[in-house]
Please model this.
Amino acid sequence: MDVLLNVNNQSNGRDKLARLVQYASRLVWHQLEKKHANKYSIERIKGLENNLSSFRKVLRLGRCIDISYAALNTIHIQDPFLRISLTVSKIAHALFLYADHIVWLTRSGFLKTDSEQWNRTANKFWLLSITANLARDVYEILQVLQLNQTTLLKPSELLRGPVKSFDVNACIKHLYAIIYCHKDIFIDTIKNSCDIFIPLTALGLTKLNPSAIGALGTVSSLAALITIVKPITKLVPA
Model:
C-alpha cells in the first residue's frame, strides 16, 4: 500500500499507472470483441481507455518544457555516444509532447487544426525518441558484454574443440548473473523494445492488432513502474 501511495504521489507515477490500465483495457476489450462478448461491456472498457488517454494528456501538459530543459544537461555528458543519443531522445520526446498537446487542445475544441496530422507528427517524434533510447540500450549492452567477454564463448573457441565441451548451463548462469547485475539495462531495453511497436503501428509501418498493442503497452508500463518503485533499477544517466 505504501508503494502504491508513493507512486500515486508523483505525477509521473500517476501517468504510468493510468498508462498501465489504459493499455490493459485495450487488450481486454479486443479479446472480448473477438469472443463476441456483450457490446455494452466492450463499449464501457473502450470508454475507460479513451478517458485514461485524455487524463494522461492533461497530466503531461507543460512537460515538454521540462524535458527540453533536461536536454541542456545531457549535452554535457562526457561519453559522446550517450551525449548524442540522450540529447536526441530528449529533444524528440519534447517535440512529441508538444505535438501531443496540440492534438489534445484541438480535440477539446480549444484550437482548430488538423488533429490527425498532428497526431501523426507526434508519433514520428515518439518513434525517433524510442529509437535513440534503443540505440543507447544496445550501446550499454555491448559495453557490458565487452567487460564480460572472457567468460563467454568466443567464435574462435568453437574451432579449437568440440562444441560439447562448452558448458551451456554455466553460460546460462553467467548470462543470468549479468542481467541480475544490470537490471537497469535489462528493464530499459524491455520497455523500449515494447514501446517502439506502438508508434510504428500508429504510422502504419507495422500491422499489430489492438491485443498485441495492449499487451506491449502493458509490459512497457510495468517496466516503467518498476523504475519508479525501485529507483535503483532506472538506467542512468537518463
Remarks:
- The CA atoms of residues 143 and 149 lie 10 Å apart.
- Residues 115-147 form the longest helix (33 residues).
- The chain is about 75% helix and 0% strand.
